[in-house]
Amino acid sequence: MDYTNPKISKVAGKVGFAVAPKGPAGKHIQWFYDEGLGINNYSSLQEKEAAWLFIQWRSSLESQFKEIHLKEARRFDLCSRKVLESQEYVEAAREVGAEEYAKSIRDTLKVATPMYFPSIPEFVEVAEALSSRVSAAIAGVYTVEKALEDANSEIYRILEEAGYY
Q1: Which residues contact 74 (CB under 8 A, 6 or more apart)?
Q2: Which of 54, 73, 98, 136 is placed for a possible disulfide with 1 were both Cys, Cβ 3.0 to 4.6 Å?
Q3: How far apart are the first and last CA of the chain?
């Protein structure tokens, strides 16, 4: 959670975190980024086996507990409930001023349905279009407004070319 750390972030103290509000259907967010850990169907058997080993390592309790204690690039958006609900997680977040963010992650996972990914072949491309623009806004390359406008245009283009519009 480097952007909450005033020693290295220009936006520390200027960001907030909360569970997304319910939408028109009365449901909370139904997509929570899971790092895209998947295995491409077109990969070789050796690549699939390597990817599976990587996913096991990356999502292990040991790896996730290590991440909350990193000195740089510390993360609190983890997938293990054992980690998220641990006192160690709460204390690690408190140590770097990321308590509000860590709480919002736990609260979001209580209401999100992680099985929801739009079942369209273009989903990865859409997610990349959004996440790259959000990352650019966080880095200060673009304003939030510009990043979201560009993401919206790119996503519309992707979906239009796929025949959805």
Answers
A1: 1, 2, 67, 68, 92, 96, 98
A2: 98
A3: 38
Is the pTM of the predicted complex or chain greater than 0.85? Answer: no
Quick one: pLDDT band at residue 34, thresholds 50, 70, 90?
Answer: very low
pLDDT 10s digits, 87-105:
999 999 999 888 888 998 8
Please name the residues in contact with 36: beta carbons below 8 A apart, sequence gap of 6 or more. 124, 127
So what's the pLDDT on residue 13? 80
Of the candidates 70, 95, 39, which has an alpha carbon nearest to the alpha carbon of residue 78? 70
User: Which residues contact residue 71 at a Cβ distance below 8 angstroms, ignoring those fewer than 6 apart?
Assistant: none
Three-class SS of the chain: CHHHCCCCCCCCCCCCCCCCCCCCCCCCCCCCCCCCCCCCCCCCHHHHHHHHHHHHHHCCHHHHHHHCCCCCCCCCCCCCHHHHCCHHHHHHHHHCCCHHHHHHHHHHHHHCCCCCCCCCCCHHHHHHHHHHHHHHHHCCCCCHHHHHHHHHHHHHHHHHHCCCC
- Of residues 14 and 129, more confidence is placed in 129
| 76: phi then psi, degrees, rounded to nearest 5 | -125, 0
